Amino acid sequence: MSGVPEEKRYLSAREAAEGLGVSLPTLYAYVSRGLVRSEEVGGSRRSRRYHGEDVRRLLERKERRRDPERALEGVLRWGAPMLESGITLVTDGRIYYRGRDALDLSRSRSIEEVAALIWTGELPADTTEILGPDISTGHFVAEKESGLRPTSLEGLQSLLSLAAMGDSAAYDLRSESVAKTGGRILRLMAGRLSGGVEGGSIAGALQRGWVPEDPDSRGLIDAALIICADHELPVSTFAVRCVASSGATPYAAVTAGLSAMQGVKHGGQIELVEKLLQEVEDSGDAQDIVGGRLRRGESIPGFGHQLYPGGDPRGAELIRLSETARPGSAAVQVSAATRAAALEVLGERPTLDLGLVTLARALELPPGGALALFALGRTVGWIGHAIEQYASDTLIRPRARYVGESPQDSG
């Protein structure tokens, strides 16, 4: 489906026809049969645009008929959509939660409000009924002797395992009940990440625990959490849905997401970006560091995203926030130099990972702060996907195509 870019929501008639490999009259026939939606542009009947999603779906059907095995093989690798979800839309270089622009939400709402939106589809005036009144650390004291730093994902997993044992209500998998369980999970996680700070909002607890002398950072932390809240079906979210499909509790589902996030190809990218920026800061020469890595065959983490050829809007927004809040900081300068070098050498723009690390360094968050923000924010999306999966009442159980040794003839 190389002729039908995944990020394009609408196509011109020529783009749609070329993507499908058909003539314009054939495209119009597809429209008349209801296979491809079209709509007027600017009120003109002669100017129409065509839904890219419909074109991609039709092309996928054609490919399945031509080569069923090959078409299914590509589904798990940035292929055609394999699960339905009403949470997040990524299109035309923008992100929407429940139809609302995610970046606009990050500038005007709290993570509690966005959690309620993702979990219930509504933006309530009061989120207390869903998420509870304030931060709770009920299991933190029993778990804090583990020796793990407060911002570690392993610590969050340990916390959730303890909390799950005392939360019988988590076995109620009706949507409203799962949302309330999600509120308990989110606030427990925030309590641990903040080092045991209790009371108030999630972003407020993190600010008081991480940068107590900088109350202005609370809004930036809130924005980062919202920007991280969901992103369709990355590996961690798919893991959450698989576990939820088995009927396991939301605690187990979120723990699965945290496990997947620790992989070097997912949340581990944040740690690689931290190392890259530290190398640039120590060297003082971003061009030398980026060029040297390329000469040695090493990757340049934090740049280029398959869904955003024009640049990841999440990374750009976090960098904008960092530059506005700390315009003269060393962290912002190092990030800018690294971005300039990567753009010149690679032609790639920063991802969410580089944006998170830039913000964390600019605000002087504790070690692991960038990854902790990512995990806590993404937990909101994980709970939303778990709610959808429970409601569907279906088990995710794909088949495997056997490629091993043929069975031996016992006769």
Describe this structure in words.
It is a single chain. The chain has 411 residues and is mainly alpha-helical. The chain is 56% helix and 6% strand. The protein contains 20 helices and six strands. The protein has helices at residues 13-20, 24-32, 52-66, 68-75, 102-108, 111-120, 128-131, 140-143, 153-165, 175-193, 202-210, 217-227, 235-245, 250-261, 268-283, 286-295, 313-325, 330-346, 352-363, 369-392, and strands at residues 10-11, 38-41, 44-51, 88-91, 94-97, 100-101. Helix 10 packs parallel to helix 11, helix 11 packs across helix 12 and helix 14 (250-261) crosses helix 20. The protein starts with 9 loop residues before the first strand and ends in a 19-residue tail after the last helix. The relative contact order is 0.11.
Number of strands: 6
Shape: globular
Helix content: 55-70%
Percent range for β-strand residues: 5-15%
Mean pLDDT: 89
What's the end-to-end separation, in Å?
47 Å
Structural class: mainly alpha
Q: Spans of 5+ residues with little confidence (pLDDT < 50)? A: none
Round the Cα radius of gyration to an integer and report it. 23 Å
Q: Strand order, main sheet: write it out.
A: 1-3-2
* Helix and strand run: EHHEEHHEEEHHHHHHHHHHHHHHHH
In DSSP terms, counting alpha (H) and pi (I) runs of 4 or more, how many helices? 20
